[in-house]
Amino acid sequence: MGERGGGASSSRDLIFQDGCLISGSLEALIEHLVPTVDYYPDKTYIFTFLLSSRVFIPPHDLLARVGQICLEQRQQLEAGSEKAKLKSFSAKIVQLLKEWTEAFPYDFQDEKAMAELKAITYRLTQCEEENGTVKKAITQMMQSLLLSLAARSQLQELREKLRSPALDKGPVLKAKPPATQKDILGMCCDPLVLAQQLTHIELVSATVCLPRERVCSIHSEDLMQIISHVDSRDNHRCRGDLTKTYSLEAYDNWFNCLSMLVATEVCRVVKKKHRTRMLEFFIDVARECFNIGNFNSMMAIISGMNLSPVARLKKTWSKVKTAKFDVLEHHMDPSSNFCNYRTALQGATQRSQMANSNREKIVIPVFNLFIKDIYFLHKIHTNHLPNGHINFKKFWEISRLIHEFMTWTQVECPFEKDKKIQSYLLTAPIYSEEGPLSLTEPEDVDAACRHGMKHTRESCFNLDMG
């Protein structure tokens, strides 16, 4: 990729260790992002810096600084009348902008960022009147960006229409449903099929917003909001911050609603024999989710069965064959920072890396644990080193986690969509957390402790942000 030249700050203010960039001043890191005639930044650096830079500088200000550096370099090249080098440099700048708009198109929903982008591309086209290739590349880039922004804008409008408190948790049951109402077994009695449909919901962003659907694709910059939100040292906020946070909340809400759906399905059944069958069915579904690599749905199902209205069903649990459930709880044991789960996740990751089919590539981590990993990595390591440099080693690691997660989310779901089953999962009424209590057997504290692990799931948005 060539060596970065152009200025003493590049060598003095960037620190490398074993060939890896570990720290630098913000200005030097920005300069390291901008191509020269003989240099183009590594793709991993582009992604990592563009992702992490928003903690320190708003995207539109970063883009303005990039444009300024580009202009200075162009002026130097023009003074030397080196047309071949000018064309090469222009092509590299367009390539950098293309990578930026593709990786983080949401940045350009900000009018200031879009204005800066247009200013840079305008200067390039004015100076490259004879270079049709550059003009064509810019036109294609802008068209793709505008299409992406239009799609996101439409999705946001649909989200806002459904963002009422009543719909955030789906339809809520306050009374016992009629006996004629179908339950989940009436829709699907095959645990594998239901696990596949849950995986489909986890992986595929739907075009129609439903109350409990994963209506918002999670993007890299959304995940970086976890850091930007809690960072008191660099307290700028970009337009759309609340929207991005809502993207995370909406996915987190899917977990909560799936847990409550499981509890609802169990508690609404009157006969113990049928309740036993329902519990064993969900245990098998969770097991199939584990085998697929869908740990998020698996954890949600386990959490639902450990909610007190279900865990306290002493008579029902006494009839359940709990060996499979015990194995699942072992995998989700919270001790040693979920060591067993992390071992299973590592195995699924290795399988995914060597996979020849989309079926083997599926890895869906427990979302709130993934969020906590990013959050605590941020809290443990400082943003700045004692010498004032940005601790870029920290952001390499955060970027690696986010990039890995985004790679998993982009796997094409190999399972055929069953609209009826998914519609039920996404729209079936659920009880409020208090609702099922009046319908369950008399509470037995010992049974709850015996059959339910400590409810480990905790919303990532309830973390101490101090």
TrEMBL record:
Ras-GEF domain residues: 190-442
Keyword GTP-binding in annotation: no
GO biological process, one term: Ras protein signal transduction
SUPFAM superfamilies hit by this protein: Ras GEF
Record domain N-terminal Ras-GEF: where: 17-146
CC per GO annotation: plasma membrane
CDD domains in the record: REM (cd06224)
Listed GO MF terms: guanyl-nucleotide exchange factor activity
Keyword vocabulary terms for this entry: Guanine-nucleotide releasing factor
Organism domain of life: Eukaryota
Protein name: Ras-GEF domain-containing family member 1A
Species name: Pteropus alecto
